[in-house]
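Fold it.
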Amino acid sequence: QVQLQESGPGLVKPSQTLSLTCTVSGGSITENYYYWSWIRQPPGKGLEWMGTRGYTGSTYYSPSLKSRTSISRDIVKNQFTLQLSSMTPEDTAVYYCASGQGTWYSPYDSWGQGTQVTVSS
């Protein structure tokens, strides 16, 4: 089973772009049928899927966030990165990376521990 670890800033100013990286160990981000996702949980709310990048490089984004979201990957470093632009206080949340197998909408079988991101001036 793969292990995932998020890293990035804990505090972002409004209007800035958030960049979070998920480092993968125990497996390759190009391994067949693996999909790599970002999910977040605002305080007091449920989990929100943000987007997924597949082993072929294909991407899938939440319609509500698509205009502000990008998920890229670094095959050499075995990492995938979330960028979320035009941050507002409503983007304050715990951000998780996760992986699943089969399809881009398959259940996740591995999660990172999550990283708190606060948007404040």
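The longest strand covers residues 93-101.
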